[in-house]
Structure formats: C-alpha cells, structure tokens
Design brief:
Number of helices: 20
Low-confidence stretches: none
CATH superfamily of the largest domain: Type I PLP-dependent aspartate aminotransferase-like (Major domain)
Strand content: 5-15%
Number of strands: 14
Largest sheet: 7 strands, mixed
Distance between the termini: 126 Å
CATH topology of the largest domain: Aspartate Aminotransferase, domain 2
Structural class: alpha/beta
CATH architecture of the largest domain: 3-Layer(aba) Sandwich
Mean pLDDT: 90
Length: 523
C-alpha cells in the first residue's frame, strides 16, 4: 500500500475527485466567487492573446513589487566626520547680489535722490536749491494740480488706499468704470479697459490676442515693454525698419507671396508699432499704417504710451494728430503713469476687443486693480486736458524753443538731436554724440569708442547741468535684453511746469554744458 506504483487507476480518480471537490467547495464558499468564475469563463473563452497579456502584466507587477527599492544617493561617497568638517571649513558662500562693475557703480552713485514730492522744480539731495526738472514725463505739470490733489484726498477718505483684489473679483469700483468710460470718450473708441501697471499693459495685451502660430509684424524700434509682449506671445515675428512704410509693405508682400506658394492656413495677424517712439522721439505715419493694414487685412496694435495727453489738438494721440477715426485702429494702448499723473495703463478699442481682455488679459485678471484715488486722478487729468487746450499749445512752444537752442551751429560738431525738426510735436528728444566727434577722439590703440565711454561722457554733461541747477538723466536701457539697444543718449523732457524764462535758461545751461564738457574730453 505504501508503494506508489501499487495505486490503481480507480484510487487516483477517487483522490482527484475528492481533492478538487474540496477545493471547489472552498472557492464557492467565498462570497461573490461564482461571479468571478463566470467572468473568467466568458472573458477568456477563445482569447489566448488576452490570457498571455494579463499573465505578463501579473508577472511584471510581482517582479516590480519584489524588486530592490531605489534610493537616491545610493552611490554617494561616505565621508568621515573629519572630512565633513574640513569641507564646511573650506566652503565660501556666493554673494546674493553679483559684484558691481565700474559702470554699475557709476549708475548707482549718479542716481539723483528727490527729497519730498515730485514736481517741476524738486529738491534733490546734495543741492541746496530746487532744480529745474527736465528728467520727468510730467509734461503738462498735472502732478502739481491742486484740483487733482483735492479730489484724490477725498477719494482716499471714501475708498481707502486700495481694493486689494483683481478687477474680475471684488477689485472693480465705480470710479474704475468711470475712468474706462472717460478714456473711451476722450479717444473716440467704443470701450476701454484699465490695467494696474503701465509696463505690463502692452506686454499683456499682445499675448491676449496673438498666440503660438499667429503672426506679428513689428517695428524694430519698439520699446522694451512692447518687446516683452511680443516675446511672451510666442508668435511668429517679422520685423520692419523703424517707421519705414516702404519696408513694411515689402515685408507684408513677402508674407503674402509665401502664403500663396506654400498654401499656408489663415492665422491671426497684427502690425505692432509705437505712435511716438520712446527710443527715438519720432512719430509713426499713422495714415500709411492704416492704408497698409486695410490693404493686407491685418489688425493694428498701436502703443501710445508716450503720445497720449500731449499729441494732437486735443491731446488724444496720433488719431487726433492725423484726424483719423480712432475706430480705424484696432487697439490703442497707453500709459497713465506720465502725463495723466496717475498709474497703470489702458487699452481702448471695440466692445469685443475689451471684453476678450477681461478674461484673457493676464495682467488684468491676476493683478489688483489700481487704487481708487489714482483712477480719479486720471479721470480728472483727462478732464483738465480736454478743458484747457492752451496747455498743449504752451508745451509745443516750449519744445520748439528748446530744440531751437540745441540746434545752434556751435553744437553741430558735437551732438545729433533726435528728432531735430523744429515743428516736431514730441515733448521730448534724445541728445546723442555725433559719430564724427567720437572718431576724432580715438586714441592710437583704439578702433572705436566703447559704449561705457560714451555713457561717461554724457554723464559728465548731466553732472555739469546739475551743478547749474538743471536736473537731467541719461536714457536707461536693459542692455543684455534689448533686441536693438539704442545708442547712449540724454533724454530731455520739456514741461509746462517751468516758465518760459526758466525753459530758456535751462536750454542755455544744457547748451553751454555740452560745449564745455565735449571740448575738454580726451584733450
């Protein structure tokens, strides 16, 4: 009986039936087991591929669960306590702020510190008397308006300092909506939307409409804020020469030809430029821009941050200057942080343009709205500009007189004036060193004058003017991020805050300072 060979077939059948019967009884005693067995029978019937796949997955899962767990730094070198102490002793932390070079130190040391309120004649640290301010964009001197000041104080008492919330949530107040209506009425557009920061307005508007795959045809001379908007949009970009309408037409024709040849799909397309160039001080030919935009079926994004409040008979910008309906420009972007004596920016256009930004303008959706007192300040500034057109005539007269002084033949060997046209409507201009003068001062070992040397020469002129009571500044740029960084310059901003006599005196001081400094330089 103990010999396995002695077991006959009947005994084997009996043993198998007993074992399997007990096994099946055990399986069926588990609640829900009959449903599992029925599922297996129906699922795997004539489906060997599924059986193989799921067996492989089960095998993989078991292998993964029982494999050796990965631990970071398993191969790290084990150091002794002494070695750790030696490394700590030798470690030198990197500075949180990079070390300043000589030019950065110059910029830091030469930055003027205004004591007290901003004005046309502020008090500056290191100077006993107030200085004539030619370094501010307060062209109409509305910062000194007593009416704006009183209304701002009243608004501050009624609304507090700020809304502390984005406009789309609980940050919109009645004064914000009033300002949007006032801007739209002033420009002649259907609607307007306001942003909390002037810089981020244009850099938010462009990517709100132009996305990856869309096309931007952009002026090479645009400001840094507009460059950032173009970059953030991640659109396809084509550049045309600054305010060169023939080159713009050439670029648009090239794009149209390329579309016909390659049968490209239709995308959103925009022309992007500035009304009054911040880097050059010249005016864009809006009439030709409108003509080309209509001819080639593009939308026009016009940055009027520098021109709103100072250009045109009413101060309404380029559409006012060229007598073109504002509705012909798809988007008019401007800053309220200069002439309007406030903060933030705006975009004006059709109802659809504005409504889209209320959900897609990142700077609108995710920034707290501007304080109520600043919204009231901007509204009041627009009212003053509309009621006192003589301010614009006075500003133009001041600008013309200043330009006339700096175009004197005694300065011709030293500087270029951008823009030097006496009738130019821009209330500011750039003084740049004449290339011929720089070449005349080259030393034997030099091939060209470095940018830093140009900046230092211009800073000497700024310092000389400062010693005689005129506050100037060099134009500042983010050198390593600008697409086409302009040449060094002194930016002179004319203001009605100075009387005619003071304006003439200031222009004379600038003229004499240029002659004095340039004559002695490298001699």
């Amino acid at each position: 009986m103990n010999d396995p060979s002695s077991i006959n077939d009947e005994q084997v059948v009996y043993i198998n039936s007993t074992v399997f019967n007990n096994f099946y009884e055990f399986i069926f005693s588990i609640p829900g087991s009959h449903m599992v067995l029925n599922y297996i029978k129906t699922s795997y019937h004539h489906d060997p591929f599924r059986i193989v796949l799921e067996l492989f997955l089960v095998f993989f899962a078991l292998k993964y669960m029982f494999s050796k767990k990965y631990k970071p730094h398993d191969n790290a070198v084990k150091l002794t306590r002494k070695e750790v102490d030696d490394l700590i002793e030798e470690w030198q932390p990197e500075p949180l702020v990079p070390k300043l070079n000589s030019f950065d130190r110059l910029n830091l040391e030469k930055t003027p510190q205004i004591i007290g309120a901003q004005s046309a004649k502020p008090k500056v640290a290191g100077h006993s008397k107030p200085m004539m301010n030619l370094a501010t964009s307060n062209h109409l001197n509305l910062v000194a308006s007593e009416t704006i000041r009183q209304k701002s104080i009243e608004t501050l008492k009624n609304y507090g300092v700020g809304s502390c919330g984005p406009p789309g949530f609980y940050g919109t107040l009645d004064v914000h909506m009033d300002l949007e209506r006032n801007i739209a009425s002033f420009l002649g557009t259907e609607e307007a939307i306001i942003y909390a920061q002037g810089f981020s307005t244009i850099s938010s508007v462009i990517p709100a409409f132009s996305k990856r795959g869309d096309l931007l045809v952009v002026d090479e001379g645009i400001s840094f804020a507009t460059q950032k908007g173009v970059q953030i949009s991640r659109s396809n970009v084509r550049w045309f020469k600054h305010n060169d309408m023939e080159d713009l037409e050439r670029v648009l024709e090239d794009i149209r030809s390329d579309d016909l040849i390659h049968n490209k799909r239709l995308t959103r397309r925009f022309i992007v430029t500035e009304g009054l160039s911040a880097n050059d001080g010249d005016i864009a030919p809006l009439d030709r821009l409108i003509e080309l935009k209509k001819k080639f079926k593009y939308r026009l994004i016009l940055d009027e941050s520098q021109s709103i409040g100072v250009i045109g008979k009413r101060g309404a910008g380029l559409t006012d200057l060229f007598n073109i309906p504002a509705i012909d420009v798809d988007m008019i972007i401007g800053s309220m942080a200069s002439v309007l004596a406030s903060s933030g920016g705006f975009c004006a256009g059709s109802h659809e343009i504005v409504d889209h930004q209320r959900l897609s303008g990142s700077a609108y959706c995710f920034s707290a709205s501007i304080p109520a007192m600043l919204a009231v300040s901007a509204s009041e500034a627009l009212s003053i500009i509309g009621q006192q057109p003589a301010l614009l005539m006075e500003l133009n007269e001041r600008s013309r007189t200043f330009r006339q002084t700096l175009l004197h033949k005694t300065l011709e060997p030293f500087i270029d004036l951008h823009v030097g046209d006496l009738d130019a409507p821009a209330p500011f201009f750039h003084i740049r060193i004449k290339p011929s003068f720089l070449r005349s001062r080259l030393q034997s070992h030099e091939k060209e004058i470095s940018r830093e040397d140009e900046e230092r020469l211009l800073q000497d002129v700024v310092d000389e003017c400062g010693s005689q009571g005129v506050l100037l500044t060099r134009a500042k740029y983010v050198y390593d991020q600008e697409r086409n960084c302009p040449r060094p310059s002194i930016k002179i901003c004319v203001t009605t805050g100075l009387s005619k006599k003071e304006n003439d005196k200031a222009s004379g001081i600038v003229k004499s300072a240029i002659i004095k400094v340039f004559t002695k330089w490298r001699k």
